[in-house]
Design goal:
The protein is 14% helix and 28% strand. With 449 residues, it is α+β, with helices and mostly antiparallel strands.
């Protein structure tokens, strides 16, 4: 029994699979680990490679056209018929039908498995499969330097599935103008706008590889509106093992003209300009260290989830069209039937977080979290997240048209990640440097009004 216990312990920490198992990638599995076959009744088709560049026109400002513009909903789930579909809905979606019975609905469209990634990303996923392992019970990664994407394409437990979301392919160095809002219960809102730059260690020519070995991503966020917040800057160095080396963050206050460390930008520290409706690790549906939770892999299931939300992403849509009382305008959304991994996180004994439990639903094709359910210390469902997935076929990577987080108790919500009214869409392949763009000394210049 002692030998068995040691074997089980090893399997829960070490994650690299055998070359024979890794050979399934690109054969029975997609190159990043999803089931290539469709489901039994054909409502989920087989994956045949996804969308490629040229799938639809891209306008002069870089906004992607909708390759499925002529699609119509197969059916619409409402409070009146929700019981017919409840086995394919998340606890959060069911709660939104209870909270907003007259207005919340889910338009369901034909399932299209659009995910596609560059070949070099597929190659790196195979490297990850046979080399990457977790450290310290899942808090960090080792032997990940050669791959940098999709740590565990053939996962064995819950924290490995979560790491696939955290390490999914996010493209090249980018800049974008992005908007968020926290509407009042009557729908009134103020747009908070940011100019964001994102860099990856392997894509910054002046980064010291040794000092950046535990860095996943660099993000700088400059507040540009409203006027009362403009000029503030937040810089984050996101680490892989945040127990070994906590997330490093700095904030520049335009009024004081001072740069300070910002240790609160982690775990359940308040998120930037979110009016208390969101915490730091709600970003990107979940971002940051996984160490405060025990992560249980519940399994895989079929669910109606936000997918291919090109209509919601369109520059023809204004923020006032999206933001409505109670929830966003569901007429602009698109849901499809997909297989998702279900992972449940429960706060570890001796740790603390305002969410005592959180359930994550992660799309098998992209390893992107598309639905969340956060519970308070009483076990009551508190906040519900939806990630409105869209495939950037031009750059071949998963993306979000928007993210929402609904507070069922307060009756308010957060919506962020919108670029609809920006002059340009996301600008990729940016020539950033560590020294000029992602150091604390660069913050003061970035924050000049």
């Amino acid at each position: 029994m002692g030998a068995l216990a040691l074997t089980l312990l090893a399997s829960s920490v070490m994650a690299a699979v055998s070359p024979e198992e890794a050979a399934k990638l690109g054969t029975s599995l997609t190159p990043v680990g999803a089931e290539k076959a469709g489901n039994a009744d054909g409502s989920i088709p087989a994956w045949t490679g996804g969308l490629k560049p040229g799938a639809a026109p891209v306008d002069a400002n870089g906004f992607l056209g909708n390759p499925f513009e002529s699609d119509k909903p197969l059916f619409v789930i409402t409070k009146a018929n929700v019981d017919q579909y409840k086995d394919k809905l998340s606890p959060g979606q069911l709660a939104l039908f209870q909270r907003y019975p007259e207005t919340y609905k889910i338009p369901v469209y034909q399932t299209r498995r659009t995910a596609s990634l560059p070949q070099e990303v597929y190659d790196r996923a195979k490297i990850s499969a046979v080399t990457t392992e977790t450290t310290n019970g899942g808090d960090g990664l080792t032997n990940f330097e050669k791959s940098r994407n999709y740590a565990f394409p053939i996962p064995k437990n819950g924290v490995e599935v979560l790491w696939n979301h955290l390490t999914r392919y996010k493209g090249t160095n980018l800049s974008r103008i992005v908007a968020q809002a926290v509407p009042q219960t009557n729908g009134d809102f103020t747009i908070v706008q940011f100019s964001e730059t994102t860099g990856f260690p392997e894509r910054l020519p002046d980064v010291d590889p040794a000092s950046a070995s535990n860095i996943l991503i660099y993000v700088k966020q400059v507040t540009t509106a409203p006027a009362r917040l403009a000029g503030g800057v937040l810089l984050v160095h996101e680490t892989l093992d945040q127990v070994k080396e906590p997330r490093m963050a700095w904030a520049y206050n335009a009024g004081q003209r001072r740069v300070r460390r910002a240790p609160q930008v982690a775990y359940d520290g308040p998120a930037n300009a979110a009016d208390g409706m969101r915490v730091s690790d709600d970003n990107d549906m979940f971002a940051g260290a996984p160490d405060r939770y025990n992560w249980k892999l519940v399994g895989k299931r079929e669910m109606y989830v936000p997918y291919n939300n090109y209509k919601l992403w369109s520059p023809k849509v204004k923020y006032a069209d999206i933001i409505k009382p109670g929830h966003i305008n569901q007429d602009l959304t698109r849901y499809e039937l997909h297989r998702v991994w279900e992972v449940e996180g429960t706060v570890k004994p001796g740790e603390r977080h305002i969410y005592a439990k959180r359930t994550l639903f992660i799309d098998e094709d992209t390893w992107t979290i598309v639905e969340t359910a956060q519970y308070d210390g009483r076990g009551q469902l508190w906040r519900v997240g939806e990630g409105f997935a869209v495939h950037n076929y031009d750059k071949q990577l998963p993306y979000f048209a928007a993210q929402t987080l609904y507070d069922l108790i307060a009756g308010r919500y957060f919506v962020g990640g919108m670029i609809n009214e920006a002059k340009h869409a996301v600008q990729w392949d940016q020539k950033f440097t560590m020294k000029m763009d992602f150091t604390p000394t660069a913050l003061r210049q970035a924050g000049v009004r």
